[in-house]
Design goal:
alpha/beta, 15% strand
C-alpha cells in the first residue's frame, strides 16, 4: 500500500484520529496516511468549523509527523463528500485501487453509502476495529458483499480504543471545560484563537 486515505469530518481532529492513524502506519507501513477532510460529510448536519478551518487544524496537528499528509481534494471538489466520488477520482489519477481507512462502526453501514457496489470495486478498505467487532464485520460483509475477499478487498486491523469524539470536544468547549489532552496543543490553541465551537459562534 503506497497510501492509505483517511476521510472524515475532523470537526475537530482529536487524539483518537491521530493514534489510530499512527497505529495503522506502524502496522501496515504505507508510505503515507493521507487525511482527507470532507467538504460536507453525508448524513450530517453542517459542520461547525468551515472546511478551511478543519483543513488547517489537521495541517497543524500533523505538521512534522513523518508519514502523515493532509489532502484538500474533497474540499476543492465541494458539495457532499461521497467516498465513491473520491475513490473514482483517485483511481483515475493513479490507475490503481485506493485504500481507505474506516472504522468498524462505519463499514457496518456500507450498504447505505452512495453506490456501494461501485465503491467496493474501486477501493480497498482497512477496517479499524477498536471495539472487538471483527466477527460482526466479517458476517456483515459476507451477507451484503459476498464478492469481497479478506486480504484482497478488505483488511481488519485491531486498534486501541480511545474514547474521544469530536462531539465531546465541541461540547466541552461550549460548556467552558478543558479540552487539554483530547486534542493536540496546537489544535487547542487554534480553537481558542478562532473562537470555534462556542455558544456565540454562528455557522450557516
Amino acid at each position: 500500500m503506497r497510501k492509505i486515505f483517511f476521510g472524515g469530518s475532523f470537526d475537530p481532529v482529536h487524539i483518537g484520529h491521530l493514534v489510530v492513524a499512527r497505529d495503522v502506519l506502524e502496522e501496515l507501513k504505507p508510505e503515507k496516511i493521507v487525511f482527507v477532510p470532507a467538504f460536507q460529510a453525508p448524513l450530517k448536519e453542517p459542520h461547525q468549523a468551515t472546511p478551511q478551518e478543519r483543513f488547517e487544524m489537521l495541517s497543524i496537528a500533523t505538521q512534522g509527523i513523518k508519514g502523515f499528509e493532509v489532502s484538500h481534494m474533497e474540499i476543492k471538489r465541494g458539495g457532499i463528500s461521497y467516498t465513491v466520488d473520491t475513490a473514482q477520482e483517485l483511481f483515475f489519477n493513479f490507475g490503481e485501487r485506493p485504500t481507505f481507512l474506516v472504522g468498524a462502526d462505519s463499514i457496518l453501514s456500507l450498504h447505505m453509502w452512495k453506490q456501494p457496489q461501485k465503491l467496493t470495486q474501486l477501493a480497498v478498505f482497512v477496517i479499524a476495529d477498536r471495539n472487538k467487532r471483527a466477527d460482526e464485520v466479517r458476517s456483515y460483509l459476507r451477507t451484503n458483499f459476498p464478492e469481497l475477499k479478506e486480504g484482497r478487498d478488505f483488511y481488519i486491523l485491531k486498534t486501541r480504543n480511545i474514547d474521544v469524539s469530536s462531539t465531546e470536544v465541541r461540547n466541552r468547549v461550549k460548556e467552558g471545560k478543558s479540552i487539554k489532552w483530547l486534542v493536540p496543543e496546537s489544535v487547542e490553541s487554534y480553537i481558542r484563537e478562532k473562537g470555534l465551537y462556542t455558544i456565540g459562534q454562528l455557522r450557516a
